[in-house]
Amino acid sequence: IVSQNSSKNTIIITMAFPTPRLAVKMLPFWLLSLSPPQIQAFQAVIGSNIRPLQFEKTASLKLTTCFHSTLRNDDPPKQFRSQNSQKTLGRLFNGKDDNDSTTTTTKPIPTKKTSSSNVKIFELDDAFEDDGENVVGTKFFGGNAVKDELYDPEEEERALELQKVKKEAEKEMEYKRFEDEGAFGDELGKRVGESLQIALNAILYGGQTNEDGVAVWKEDSALKWVTPFGKKSGNASPFKELKEATSFYNKLDIAILSGKTIKSEGKFSTVEIRWDIGALWPNPWESRVLLTGTSTLTVVDDKASNTITVVKQEDRLDGSSPMDVVSSLSSQLSPRFWDIYHIGMTPSTELDPRFDPSSVTSPRSSSGKLAKLSKKGLFSSYKLSYLPPRLVTQPSLLDVNGRSGRTAQALPNHGFTTAIKTMGPNKEFFVPVSPIEVTISKVPGDGSSDGDVGGSLITWTVPLPPEFASNTKLPLPLMEEESDVDEEVDANDGVDNKENSESLANQSNSPITATSPYSRRPSAPPPKPPTSLQCSYSLRPARLVATLPYAGNPQDEAVTDLRRKLYQQAVEQDGFKPKLDPVTKRPIFFFWMNDAKACFTRQGGLGMAVYEWRAEWSQSNEVGIELDL
């Protein structure tokens, strides 16, 4: 809005901008709409004479910035008292250049007929200069004077209490990996694991090399390193080789999953850590590979300087060839059929590794091989697999709807911790992992209420990719309990639907003429909402499992027959001992959804699940039983 005040011979420019700084930057673009003489006049004075005078909130809650030029023909400012000032003012107000012999047809800017007396203008000289002492905007908003006027001790104290409660709630919504005694059972194992993880993150993702209270990781100058990974020189160190590797892979991630102290002799201590390495291979389809293994570290823990120095490191891969990285990678580089079939749906999937138990080395066996009770039978159709330890997330709930509810076929909402943007300029990078494991166990009712017959405890287990697991703190999902009002409404809805179903059933018994376009069918009552919602992270131990292929879903009736067949072959015929559930004392059966992918981002965690269509002949899913190692 441009208006001219004839009494004071000034021009008032009113423009709406989000911030004062943006207003000053955008004002020259507005000048393009003026006539050439006016543009020249504005350009001559905008640098030092245009200054903000007023901020007011409009009805649409936008900030209105008023710029007041204070150009006076009769009394120009000191900085414009030059021989060209009158020419400048003439071009500005009259649209005429004094150097030209002709008069332009541009009319003077009309005065807007509004009650200007209702608008109060506050002149704030140098209000938006930021010299380190005067913060931008503080003079207009009142500064300390207004703060003292609006200060309320009770409200301030209450605000501090709310901030404290918020911080405590945020702590409860995080899983601090290195405080989990199930993964890091002793103090030295925790210090070594956390220190090494932070040092690795600094190389892979940038940032600080240490955090408050965390020991600084160092490599000894005479470090002895035995590893299956290639070294460019004989005196290469793990961190030097890691920096070189980041330039080769499209993406590289390392997560320290666990740590434990094996022995301590003097100042030297031996610690075994478990790690996962995920990489995006630089081929056209960007294969995602996953390597799992352990490292035995000989370290010196200097608590006085809060440093940990590694003097010896021995790395070993899981699988049949602990020192052969090529064999571990070769099976993961070729494109997978279903990834190609569903091309464009997700990036290449990271698969949970499985190994042949007959060739897996284990510290539990004196012979170096994984101890087994017996061998797989010649006519047995199941597949025997060894799974290394992995960090997993496990959402669970109590379901009372049975097979008809089909609750186990999809990840529950309370298992997600973020949302993933898959399109647009802010598209996020995510890592799909598979399979999603489903375990269903019966829970008897406690008889606390009528009709309480228990239900099924459904637990989903999803392995975490190293990109997300490399964080020292993992977000937990926010779960809200349903209110009593909602439960009452649901109960009423169930009664109404039941009555409607009975009425529809009675109507269905009546004869229907052949001319009817359709037949009305009674609707089933709505499923009851699940209860006992939980979600946690944990280090899943090593497992020995037997599986049979299946093309259906976790709650199909055919799954019961496959469980019985699997138990007969693996336990009764071949002599394996089943692992029992610690609560129900029953064998642990599970279902692998290989046609489902759980998608993670580095900071947010689980944000999306993708369910693929696969032909029935592929028998892509599996029914399994867990066996004792």
What does this protein look like?
The chain has 629 residues and is α+β, with helices and mostly antiparallel strands. The chain is 23% helix and 28% strand. The chain contains twelve helices and 23 strands. The chain has helices at 20-30, 36-45, 85-94, 143-150, 153-172, 187-205, 238-246, 325-333, 337-341, 466-469, 484-509, 558-573; strands at residues 2-5, 10-16, 51-57, 63-68, 174-176, 216-226, 251-265, 268-280, 288-302, 307-317, 350-351, 383-387, 390-399, 431-434, 436-443, 455-463, 473-475, 531-540, 543-550, 589-593, 596-601, 605-611, 621-627. β1 and β2 form a beta hairpin. The radius of gyration is 36 Å and the shape is globular. Residues 45-128, 134-143, 363-368 and 482-522 have low confidence and may be disordered.
The proportion of residues forming helix, as a percent range, comes to 10-25%
Terminal CA distance = 81 Å
Q: How many helical stretches? A: 12
- Gyration radius (Cα, Å) is 36 Å
* Strand numbers in spatial order across the main sheet: 12-19-23-20-15-16-13-18
Poorly predicted regions: 45-128, 134-143, 363-368, 482-522
The biggest sheet, with number of strands, parallel, antiparallel or mixed sense and barrel status, is:
8 strands, antiparallel
Number of strands: 23
Q: Whole-number average pLDDT?
A: 74
Structural class label: alpha+beta
Strand content: 25-35%
Query: Looking at the chains present, what oligomeric state does this protein adopt?
Result: single chain
Principal-axis shape equals globular
Please give the structural blueprint.
Layout: E1 2-5, E2 10-16, H1 20-30, H2 36-45, E3 51-57, E4 63-68, H3 85-94, H4 143-150, H5 153-172, E5 174-176, H6 187-205, E6 216-226, H7 238-246, E7 251-265, E8 268-280, E9 288-302, E10 307-317, H8 325-333, H9 337-341, E11 350-351, E12 383-387, E13 390-399, E14 431-434, E15 436-443, E16 455-463, H10 466-469, E17 473-475, H11 484-509, E18 531-540, E19 543-550, H12 558-573, E20 589-593, E21 596-601, E22 605-611, E23 621-627
Parallel strand pairs: 6-10, 11-14
Antiparallel strand pairs: 1-2, 2-4, 3-4, 5-17, 7-8, 8-9, 9-10, 12-19, 13-16, 13-18, 14-21, 15-16, 15-20, 19-23, 20-23, 21-22
